[in-house]
Design goal:
Layout (H helix, E strand, L loop, with lengths): L1 H6 L6 H11 L9 E3 L4 E12 L8 E9 L38 E4 L4 E8 L33 E3 L21 E3 L21 H6 L9 E3 L3 E7 L7 E6 L6 H6 L3 E6 L3 H4 L12 E12 L29 E3 L9 E6 L2 E2 L2 E3 L6 E7 L6 E7 L5 E2 L1 E6 L2 E2 L8 H8 L3 E4 L13 E8 L4 E6 L8 E7 L1 E2 L6 E2 L2 E7 L18 H5 L14 H4 L11 E11 L2 E10 L23 E4 L7 E9 L5 E5 L5 E6 L19 E4 L10 H6 L5 E9 L3 E7 L2 H5 L3 E7 L5
Parallel strand pairs: 1-4, 2-5, 4-11, 7-8, 12-17, 16-28, 29-32, 31-38
Antiparallel strand pairs: 2-3, 5-9, 6-10, 10-11, 12-14, 13-14, 14-15, 17-24, 18-19, 18-23, 18-25, 20-21, 20-23, 20-24, 22-23, 25-28, 26-27, 29-30, 32-36, 33-35, 33-37, 34-36, 37-38
Length: 710
């Protein structure tokens, strides 16, 4: 680096020298470290802790997951072993001054279909106050008045996994993907009356209020700040990219923005590599994992955990130029001189060197709390956007039959990609390749792509996040350059063929597939008394996204006639989430507890985009009615794409988030129609995965119960 600086002539512009220096100093992208299962099992300790992040500007103190292998015989550990840590210190929480064990970018947990994953979660987070470090930092309030959130409770959600959401029973003290349990560090001093409760056992009065049986009413709060989780991965669970993150309502935004997120992968990409998996196969390109996280850092090094899109000022109109390389500078008031850092695997603007002439496979996760990424790969010399092959979205590989048209591909993928013809055509008759030059990744999205050398292009490209506007009442996320890409240029006139692959989406929906048989047998006893009527086949559930108050987001619900034009309701209430409320939706399985498939209409009356996500399920996109007037055909049975989140575009110019504007005719909402097969029994939630919206109320409960015997 010093030699490069010396070579900069004193007559050259200083900016040019700095640019050359920065590029010379770019670090190679490092894949997240991996902890893999063995002999059908993986057991890990996950500690939510403070950690100083030395690789980021001003070395802020973030909140990260410290992760290591764990056995029940290890006893009541509250931290992972590290050099210099004594046996006594293993039973106390680490502090920010203690050396890091796991990187900010996360540790990838690797399990196989059929494995059992056990996690001991320990909350070592400090308490928070609503006005610290400054007024409005933790502005969202939740259930239990305003008292619970100040103790900084946390929990885990295994995002995208089709696993049992069970809670403890007489013979099993573990939780599944149960969203209604919280761990609070005892050092934060929560009132005794708030801990040790087990609402998942609720019966009697709660069941009578709901009219359809047992369900979660309220919260479980563990007395020791520890939650033991057990997840049984189905033997035919799709291989793909998933993730684990905090889901403590009211603080999810703050905790994920501070770093509480880590990737999880299942299987060995059998859809690409065959049953033998990818390891050691000479015909398989290199596989990378890219975890996208952002962090707003104030001038004095404190974090801005309540993210604001205006941190770096208001971007200009249209697709404005990049705000910077991996970061932008804070502007105005408390933000002046701060830094908004955008990282890949915790690194600032790393270099991705593609050495193989066949290219690579990238598995990308948007682990940011609020930010939407509008990704493209740009030729650095010409600025042209370069194509990639899309292999999988949200952890399930695409199933596209040969001969599918570009319009059909775009319809099944919605706005998640900007599809284009693949330059190299098909490499196999097994599937139609899907290519794109833009990828839309709202919070929680995952995508797996093949990145190949580009014919006739330069050897240097840039992974760029473009500015993205979520609407007049929403956010304008700035564009930044995330990484530099070096690759061998393909020969002029040549183009890499699309990778041959076998999709997984169709097999999940075929008779005997994962989404056609009952799951979560362990939930049967708990839910055995629950009853509700099946949704008639000519009816659909309609979920309305809006803003019931000045500082809240909410959801409305009603049942409508399926396949009809969108009409305003006579009366509809938008409600904010409440742990103590009864489930909004009850789904009864078919006789013999066979899965049922429902049609849901997602209606947006707000002037901002939302991102629908439902736990313990996958769904197909049937129809999308946006402001552009595009309509997705309702029946594209040949192509299969399964999602666990989908963008719900903003309503028309008169939409202000209220039902009243819709009723008056001033608002023409957008509508997205999805088809959801429900197979997992238990209680879980659906919500907007922009975590600022979820925390301020845009979430509701759903109960999936056994079939009625009446």
């Amino acid at each position: 680096m010093i030699e490069r600086l010396v070579l900069c002539s004193r007559t050259l512009l200083l900016a040019l020298c700095v640019l050359v220096t920065e590029r010379a100093a770019a670090e190679p992208l490092a894949d997240p470290p991996v902890i893999a299962s063995s002999k059908g099992s993986l057991e890990v300790l996950v500690v939510a802790r403070e950690q100083r992040l030395s690789g980021l500007p001003n070395q802020p103190v973030g909140w990260v997951y410290e992760i290591c292998r764990y056995r029940s015989a290890d006893g009541p550990r509250r931290r992972c072993p590290a050099p210099g840590v004594t046996a006594r210190q293993l039973t106390t929480c680490p502090t920010a001054a203690d050396p890091p064990v796991s990187p900010y970018g996360g540790v990838r947990l690797q399990v196989e279909p059929g494995d059992t994953l056990r996690i001991r979660l320990v909350n070592c987070l400090p308490g928070v106050a609503r006005d610290q470090p400054f007024a409005g930092e933790f502005k969202h309030v939740g259930e239990e008045g305003e008292t619970l959130l100040q103790y900084n409770p946390t929990n885990l959600h295994t995002h995208g996994l089709l696993v049992d959401p069970h809670c403890p029973s007489a013979g099993d003290d573990t939780y599944g993907d149960w969203m209604f349990v919280l761990a609070i560090d005892p050092r934060n001093g929560p009132p005794p009356e708030m801990v040790g409760r087990h609402s998942c056992q609720a019966t009697g009065a709660g069941a009578e209020r709901a009219g359809h049986g047992r369900h979660s009413v309220g919260l479980d709060v563990t007395p020791d700040g520890v939650v033991s989780y057990r997840y049984q991965i189905p033997t035919d669970h799709p291989a793909g990219l998933y993730w684990i993150h905090s889901h403590a309502h009211g603080l999810a935004l703050n905790q994920v923005a501070a770093g509480l997120a880590t990737p999880l992968t299942i299987g060995r990409m059998d859809y690409l590599c065959g049953s033998a998996g990818c390891s050691g196969r000479s015909g398989v390109p290199r596989v990378r994992h890219l975890v996208l996280k952002d962090m707003q850092i104030l001038p004095d090094g404190r974090l801005k955990r309540q993210e604001e899109w205006v941190f770096c000022g208001k971007p200009g109109p249209g697709d404005s130029p990049s705000a910077g390389r991996a970061s932008c500078r804070g502007t105005g008031g408390l933000y002046e001189g701060g830094t908004w850092a955008f990282t890949v695997n915790g690194q600032l603007h790393p270099e991705i060197a593609i050495a193989d002439a066949r290219g690579e496979v990238w598995r990308i996760l948007n682990a940011s709390a609020n930010v939407t990424y509008w990704l493209a790969i740009h030729d650095e010399e010409t600025g042209a956007e370069l194509p990639v092959q899309v292999l999988s979205v949200d952890g399930v590989s695409l199933d596209i039959p040969p001969g599918s048209t570009l319009a059909e591909l775009q319809a099944k993928l919605g706005t998640k990609v900007r599809a284009m013809p693949c330059p190299g055509g098909r490499s196999s008759a097994a599937a139609e390749p899907v290519c794109a030059d833009r990828l839309l990744m709202m919070p929680s999205s995952r995508v797996e792509i093949a990145v190949a050398p580009w014919a006739g292009r330069s050897r240097r490209a840039v992974l760029r996040n473009h500015l993205f506007d979520t609407g007049p009442d929403g956010d304008r996320w700035p564009g930044v350059e995330l990484a530099t890409i070096r690759s061998p240029a393909a020969a002029a006139g040549a183009a890499a063929k699309g990778l041959a692959m076998k999709g997984q989406s169709r097999s999940l929906l075929e008779p005997g597939g994962l989404l056609t048989r009952p799951l979560s047998a362990g939930a049967q006893e708990r839910a055995s008394a629950a009853r509700c009527k099946q949704l008639p086949p000519d009816r659909a559930r309609q979920v309305v996204f809006g803003t019931p108050g000045a500082h809240t987001h909410g959801l409305g619900y009603r049942e409508v006639q399926a396949g009809q034009p969108l009409t305003a309701p006579g009366e509809l209430k938008l409600s904010t989430f409440d742990h103590a409320a009864d489930p909004t939706v009850c789904v009864s399985l078919a006789p013999g507890d066979r899965p049922v498939t429902e049609v849901w209409e997602l209606v947006n009356v707000a002037g901002e985009d939302h991102n629908f996500h439902v736990h313990q399920a996958r769904f197909e996109l049937l129809r999308s009615e946006s402001l552009a007037g595009t309509v997705t055909p309702e029946r594209l049975e040949g192509a299969r794409v399964l999602h666990d989140n989908v963008p719900v575009p903003r309503g028309g110019p008169g939409c202000n988030g209220t039902v009243a504007a819709w009723q008056s005719g001033a608002c023409v909402p957008s509508r997205v129609i999805v088809r959801i097969p429900f197979a997992v029994l238990g209680d879980f939630v659906y919500h907007c995965h922009i975590l600022g919206h979820e925390d301020s109320g845009m979430m509701a409960k759903i109960s999936v119960v056994p079939a009625s015997t009446k």
